[in-house]
Design brief:
The chain is built from 10 helices and 5 strands. By secondary structure, it is of the alpha+beta class.
Length: 267
């Protein structure tokens, strides 16, 4: 067999791995150099950054901190906050006066209207459960045994009628006598006399503008005295006319009504 002679190329092939190895070592060296460079801290830049941060925080503290000597109040939690103290009541002298009620206003106006009689002790205005009651002595309104109003009593009654015309309540006029019997052609008994006197006052009120539908005339004779009839003074007190401005609760009370048919009573 022929023997093959080695060529130049065959001589160079065994050393080519050194090139690859050298390249690898070079890359590895470069890698470690980069890693080393990254791990090194620039002390100058780090010092500048640290001083900047310190300055910024120091200025913030000066801006938010209270001045020296100022007490710092701790804010309690919302759940434990105390309730505000109740306001102190004003002094009695500083309290506003209560507004007068309608009854008080009407009662005061009736007192002013009947002032001539009240000053002489012939009339009295008072508040009762039934309403505002005005008691007028019969001697200030009528002659003895008569039911016609005296001219001297007309001005005071007119002034009272103007007051009563302004309120919507019902008005009951009651006539009262003493227990001394009367027997005349016009008034056979105290029932007729007391009823006629109440009716005279009602007619006066109607003439002064009080609606007739709100008025009632009632005669009680001697059966509702306010004093005893054993003395002249007591009998004089019992002879009176009472004007009652009825309260709403008195008007709403139910009563017993008896209706008679005259035809059924005929024999």
């Amino acid at each position: 067999m022929r023997r093959r002679h080695p060529s130049v190329e065959d001589d160079e092939k065994p050393d080519r791995w050194l090139v690859s190895y050298a390249d690898f070592i070079t890359l590895l060296f470069a890698f470690f150099v980069v890693m080393y460079a990254i791990s090194q801290v620039n002390e100058g830049k780090y010092r500048v950054l640290s001083e900047s941060l310190s300055t910024a925080f120091t200025q913030q503290i000066h801006l938010t901190a209270p001045p020296r000597g100022t007490p710092v109040m701790a804010t309690p939690p919302a759940t434990s906050a105390p309730e505000p103290p109740a306001p102190e009541p004003p002094e009695p002298s500083a309290l506003p006066a209560p507004e007068p009620t309608t009854n008080e206003i009407v009662g005061k106006e009736l007192l002013e209207a009947l002032n001539p009689m009240v000053a002489r002790g012939l009339a009295k205005v008072q508040q009762t459960e039934r309403g505002i009651s005005v008691d007028i002595s019969a001697s200030a309104l009528f002659d003895i045994g008569q039911a016609d109003l005296q001219p001297a009593a007309v001005p005071a009654l007119r002034a009272a009628a103007r007051v009563l015309a302004k309120v919507p309540n019902r008005i009951q006029v009651e006539g009262h006598t003493d227990n001394v019997p009367i027997s005349t052609v016009a008034y056979p008994s105290n029932w007729e006399l007391s009823s006629a006197r109440a009716a005279s006052v009602v007619r006066m009120f109607i003439g002064e503008g009080v609606p007739a539908a709100r008025l009632a005339a009632v005669g009680y004779a001697e059966h509702q005295p306010i004093e005893g009839n054993t003395s002249a003074q007591g009998r004089a007190s019992n002879r009176r006319v009472t004007v009652i401005l009825m309260a709403a609760k008195s008007e709403d009370k139910d009563g017993l009504t008896l209706t008679l048919n005259p035809k059924r009573l005929e024999p």
